[in-house]
Design goal:
about 130 residues, Ribosomal Protein L13p, Chain: A, about 20% strand, globular, Ribosomal_uL13_sf, ribosomal protein, mRNA binding
Amino acid sequence: MFEDIERAWHQVDGYGQVCGRLASKLVPLLCGKHKPTYQPQRDMGDYVVVTNVAKTVHTGKALDQKRYYRHSGYAGGLSYVTLRQLIASNPLEPLRRAVYGMLPKNKLREQRMRRLRLYPGAEHSHGAQP
């Protein structure tokens, strides 16, 4: 009934690119919207390898004013980290969270995120992909 999906590999260099704008370019590749056979109910996307993620740019006062909240489930358990603290602990996490937030909120979201490969430097292990 359904034919096999042809999955390509895209390599993107994040050096000097704005984090949110880069994320908005990655999401259509992960969803498969660039393909003429796109179907929203199927996972048609490609693999995306992003290098130099640690060298992406954050504009304005975002480093100190942007906050990522979480709640422990207990009363008064709301805590946050700023973007600067998040980058210090894991430089890949801001771009991963930006892409995750831009993907459609459905059952295919986790499958699409598994095809996103992030690397802080220029080296990666996906050299010769078909």
